[in-house]
Design goal:
The complex is a heterodimer of chains A (98) and B (296).
Chain A: H1 2-20, E1 24-31, H2 36-47, E2 52-58, E3 63-68, H3 76-86, E4 89-97
Antiparallel strand pairs in A: 1-3, 1-4, 2-3
Chain B: H1 3-14, E1 37-48, E2 57-71, E3 76-91, E4 96-103, E5 107-112, E6 115-119, E7 122-133, E8 142-143, E9 146-147, E10 160-171, E11 174-183, E12 187-188, E13 191-192, E14 196-208, E15 219-231, E16 235-236, E17 239-240, E18 246-258, E19 262-276, E20 285-293
Antiparallel strand pairs in B: 1-2, 1-20, 2-3, 3-4, 3-5, 5-7, 6-7, 7-10, 8-9, 10-11, 11-14, 12-13, 13-16, 14-15, 15-18, 16-17, 18-19, 19-20
The chains are: A alpha+beta (98), B mainly beta (296).
Chain lengths: 98, 296
């Protein structure tokens, strides 16, 4: 009985990433990002948005990478306002499927 | 005491705050986004014991200074600072010790970011500010010798407007902040402290990590600040005190560790030059320690 259970768990674990892989990843260029606290301030603003799954701030590259769940998206006007409110300047965004 | 009431209020604000790197010896450069709080708790120890009057005066002051900022939008921010002061003055020649402790004068100011130029990994901001120091501290404390002198009172009793301009240039490797300010001190009960003009500069240089990798690591900054402070002579009922006021130039080395969630910093202000009037008491040093964090 132990082996069929193990097989089910393995199948579940393998299937899990695929279930989350249908969203979109946004690669956002931001000017003015220059310290770790800047990063946290931006992360907090993104985490208030529905559908945001993950936020990574790459300080050296001046980029914010945001993973969105399937069926949700970020718009350019939304990003311009978000970064302006946080005190930074939005420069551009590219997106790709997760 | 009012302080126990303030603590839960400050903790409540603290739980919703975010903090930014900033100079150690002045608070006007604190960055704050729209709808965000900035909270900073400083502990300051001021020792003054070099007494040209021969009275062997020794003055110790310990201050817990809370600074709170709120971003109204991306250009306007409101700030408040509230000190809690403990002051001891010993006069060795007369074997007299005088003491006071309590809330000091609360200050409010508004800052407007008039110029902002952002580039990849760097930013330049210039912001004028204006505010008011309010007489929330007691200035009529007495002991067995009578009314305490103004230098031992927790508050000034006066409403004192101030203003200035602060600039910040921040890159991933270093940050420079400069400030020029002026405070017009007014009279209370016949005593008027001299106006204060200040020029402050702060350089924060990233020591660790030497090379940036992916993500957002904590930054260790070496800090070097200078503070030029000029105070006019105090006046009492129209007469100026010849043993008050003058100019002081401080050099302030320090360290600052900044992470995404908390900041810790320490510095010592050393007087390089003290060109004081008459027999005014000179500063020996000022110690500064700051701890702040944010939880969400």
């Amino acid at each position: 009985m132990k082996n069929p259970f193990s097989a089910l768990i393995v199948l579940f674990l393998l299937g899990s990433p695929q279930a989350h892989a249908a969203g979109t990843q946004y690669d956002i260029q931001v000017n003015g990002l220059a310290c770790p606290f800047c990063a946290y301030s931006i992360e907090k603003k993104f985490k208030k948005i529905e559908g945001v799954q993950k936020v990574d701030v790459e300080l050296e590259a001046g980029k914010v990478i945001v993973d969105m769940a399937e069926g949700t998206k970020l718009t350019e006007p939304q990003l311009i306002k978000l970064f302006k409110d946080a005190g930074f300047t939005f420069k551009g965004v590219t997106e790709k499927p997760l | 005491m009012k302080r126990p009431v303030l603590i839960p209020v400050l903790i409540g604000l603290f739980l919703n705050s975010s903090l930014q790197a900033a100079p150690i010896t002045f608070n006007t450069a604190l960055a704050v986004g729209q709808g965000e709080y900035v909270l900073r708790q400083q502990f300051i120890g001021l020792q003054s014991g070099h007494d040209p009057s021969g009275l062997k005066r020794d003055r110790k002051e310990t201050t817990a200074l809370t600074a709170l900022g709120y971003g109204l939008n991306n250009q306007w921010a409101l700030f408040a600072t509230l000190p809690y002061r403990t002051i001891d003055l010993d006069i060795g020649e007369a074997s007299i010790s005088r003491h006071s402790s309590g809330l000091g004068d609360m200050s409010f100011f508004v800052r407007y970011t008039a110029y902002q130029d952002d580039a990849p990994g760097k930013t330049l901001r210039i912001a004028p500010f204006a505010g008011l120091k309010t007489p929330t501290g007691s200035h009529r404390e007495r002991d067995r010798y009578g009314l305490l002198p103004p230098s031992v009172q927790s508050g000034s009793g006066s409403w004192d407007p101030f203003g200035g301009v602060v600039m910040t240039y921040q890159t991933l490797q270093f940050q420079f902040d400069g400030q020029a300010s002026y405070r017009f001190n007014t009279a209370a009960d016949g005593f008027e402290a001299g106006d204060v003009a200040r020029l402050d500069a702060s350089l924060q240089y990233r020591l660790f990590p030497r090379k940036l990798s992916r993500g957002t690591p904590g930054f260790l900054y070496g800090v070097l600040e200078t503070n030029l402070v000029h105070q006019a002579k105090d006046r009492y009922r129209g007469h100026s005190n010849p043993d008050s006021g003058g100019a002081r130039l401080f050099l302030t080395p320090g360290l600052q560790y900044v992470t995404r969630r908390w900041i810790i910093e320490g510095a010592i202000q050393l007087p390089l030059v003290q060109n004081l009037n008459g027999k005014a008491l000179e500063n020996d040093y000022i110690l500064r320690g700051v701890f702040a964090s944010t939880s969400n």
